[in-house]
Amino acid sequence: MDISTSKLTVLDQIASSDKVRRKIMDAASALYAKKGFAATSIQEISEKAGVSLPVTHHYVKNKSEVMRMIMEDVLNIFRESLIKRVQGVDDPKEKLTAAIMLYFKVVDQQREKVLLIYQKSSSLDKTSKSHVMQLEVEVSDIFGKIINEGMERGVFKKVDVDLMAYNIIIMAHMYILKRWHFKNRLTLEKYTDLQLTMIMDALVRS
Fold this sequence. Notes:
Layout: H1 10-15, H2 17-35, H3 42-49, H4 53-59, H5 63-86, H6 92-109, H7 111-120, H8 126-152, H9 161-177, H10 179-182, H11 188-203
């Protein structure tokens, strides 16, 4: 269904909640990246999203809530995609490889939002920060469970699981944060392959 204010009533837009939320988040992400967080108004987000202002206020009351929505969306995409990707995969090495490759790809696809998370997380209130941090821990736990499984089965060496899981997360983020350095030298595929080799060298028993 087309979410357009010229065709849909306010009630229609509210009823189409997932699509409207996506429009608001995408519009806010683009505006924040272009104009900055402080210079962007809820009115501008509403106009760019093609969603009426009353409907926008139905979902978010201020710009901090928009930022929280963006952060939650990105982290949920990571978590849900990873869970789906590794279902049915038994071998720990194969499972970890699949999870890493997907994670790096999702981070790259959502790079504007990832940058916003780094730049603007301080704008969130304490409760929102706590919720977003918990989502990040859940993403880390997915990697941690795979690594633990490999250790228990004797496939992986004994390592600090939490540290290794966060190393993987930061490796993915590094390609975005230091894109100015890597983009002319390494494609995402090559970067992923090189990092995957280092991770497996550190984990897999010889």
